[in-house]
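To assess whether ligand presence alters the predicted conformation, the chain was also submitted together with iron/sulfur cluster. Input:
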Amino acid sequence: MNRIIRVFPHKNSYSPDDEYAFFGEPTPLFPLPEHDEIHISCTFTWDKAFCEYLAYQYESLTNKPVKLGGVAYGSTAEGFIQGMYIKKNIIFTSRGCNNNCPWCVVHKTEGKLRELPICEGNIIQDNNFLQTSRVHQNKVFDMLKHQHGICFKGGLEPDLITQRFIDDMSVIDFRRIKELWLACDTDQRIPYLKKACELLSNAGFTKNKLHCYVLSYGKDREKDEARARAVYEAGAMPFVQLYRDFTNNKTQYDADWNAWARMWQRPAATRAHMEKFTSYLDFKT
Ligand code: SF4
């Protein structure tokens, strides 16, 4: 197998941590190990200039091929190589999605959903796990039976959460499931989210384990605030994400929007905010 050095512009909690993973500019303190090629991996378009600079820097240190790619360059994600561009325990068991949500790049970069061979890992990052077949899901649950700290982080589509799915998932000891992430990106999804939360809370999943991505375009505070509150009241902890348009410049929001989104990203702050809101309603009635 090729010995591939992967270079990332920044380190984050998903970054691989093996001896072939490098971050930012090369430094004499960390000489490059023997390798066959170098991949500069760029996820966000606003990091492209820096990644091109990194490619230039690394090219000067090696006579092996230096390849520049990643989501920012429209590289297609056909399959999944465990541990290559994300930590080994974070896995994709499928790629793509059959939906075409206008704010999302998955259907453009990965195409229609397809199932992949399943490797061992405890964080399932699939974009739309619930669109995979029941047979595939059950194979994933079988693999997960032996894992701890299990997270479904990709954002489960609430209208596809069924009692059948929960029953099938129950081959896993639910105490081993740390987080289930749902998604509620539009107001139309709220009724489905409520139903999904009801089914999951009947199965024992509380707000400590149930989380939900809430997309905000940073334009209509009242509407987005109401959706985040509806998610909280349905039984999941909202996590507001401000929309990024994946052009060369990172979409900027003013300090007030950033502070509001941060408040909905921290469970303690979210709880305090919701308590304040409930006492305000009590006061009004
Ligand atoms: S369902 Fe999720 S992954 Fe699929 S297109 Fe919509 S946002 Fe993207």
